[in-house]
Amino acid sequence: MNVILAILYAPEGQKPLSIARVYDRDLLSTAAARAIREAEARANELMEDDPTLGNLQREEANKLKRVLGMLLPDSPASARTQ
Questions:
Q1: What is the band of 2 on the pLDDT scale with cuts at 50, 70, 90?
Q2: Cβ atoms 54, 41 nearer than 8 A
């Protein structure tokens, strides 16, 4: 399986433009773990103001963990899903 980290430039109101692609598994694992932490933090923030939105975001964070765990099975991100 080929997992790629893409660096995009997104001008206001236009389609994103791919600037670079990174294939380094360690960097991919680090980025996956960071994405999960940020999604969980966002869920916690939302939970304070609106529990319904917080729960929806928590489900999105859980989905992100499952997907990244399948794509990067030997990463720290996959260990968090178990």
A1: confident
A2: no
With H, G, I as helix, E, B as strand and everything else as coil, classify residue 4.
Answer: coil
Q: How far apart are CA 40 and CA 23, in angstroms?
A: 25
Neighbours of 35 (CB within 10 A): 15
The domain segmentation of the chain, as residue ranges, is 5-79
31 alpha carbon, distance to own chain's centre: 7
Tens digits of per-residue pLDDT, 23-63? Answer: 999 999 999 999 999 999 999 999 999 999 999 999 999 99
Give the number of other CB atoms < 10 A from CB of residue 81. Answer: 15
CA–CA separation, 32 vs 27, rounded Å? 8
